[in-house]
Structure formats: structure tokens, C-alpha cells
TrEMBL record:
<dbReference type="InterPro" id="IPR009579">
    <property type="entry name" value="DUF1192"/>
</dbReference>
<protein>
    <recommendedName>
        <fullName>DUF1192 domain-containing protein</fullName>
    </recommendedName>
</protein>
<dbReference type="Pfam" id="PF06698">
    <property type="entry name" value="DUF1192"/>
</dbReference>
Length: 62
């Protein structure tokens, strides 16, 4: 027997397109807050990448 089989599996996070009808009102509210946080994190990384891209484009246009 493999020891990995005995290790409790971590529940997966939300998957896009997942059936939401099984979630309670509180779970849906928590999911919304989690997704808002994830959107903010993605937007921050996007802003950093856009700044880097703009700087590179400006350097190569000289």
C-alpha cells in the first residue's frame, strides 16, 4: 500500500463552470470574496507586466 493513498486529499478550489447550486448562501458569498481577491491579484500582476512591456517597447523604439 502506498502512503500517498492514506494522505487526506486537499479539496480543490473553485473551478470555473462548476455547478454552484450545491453551495449555500454563505459559501457563495465566501466564493465571491475569494474571487474578488484573485481578480485583484491578477490585475496587479497584469499592471506590472504591462509596465515592463511599455518600458521595453520604449527602449527599443530609440
Amino acid at each position: 500500500m502506498d502512503l500517498d493513498d492514506l494522505t487526506p486529499k486537499k479539496p480543490k478550489g473553485h473551478e470555473i463552470g462548476k455547478d454552484l447550486s450545491t453551495l449555500s448562501v454563505d459559501e457563495l458569498r465566501a466564493l465571491i470574496e475569494t474571487l474578488k481577491g484573485e481578480i485583484a491579484r491578477i490585475e496587479a500582476v497584469l499592471g506590472e507586466k504591462q509596465s515592463s512591456r511599455n518600458a521595453a517597447e520604449a527602449a527599443f523604439k530609440r
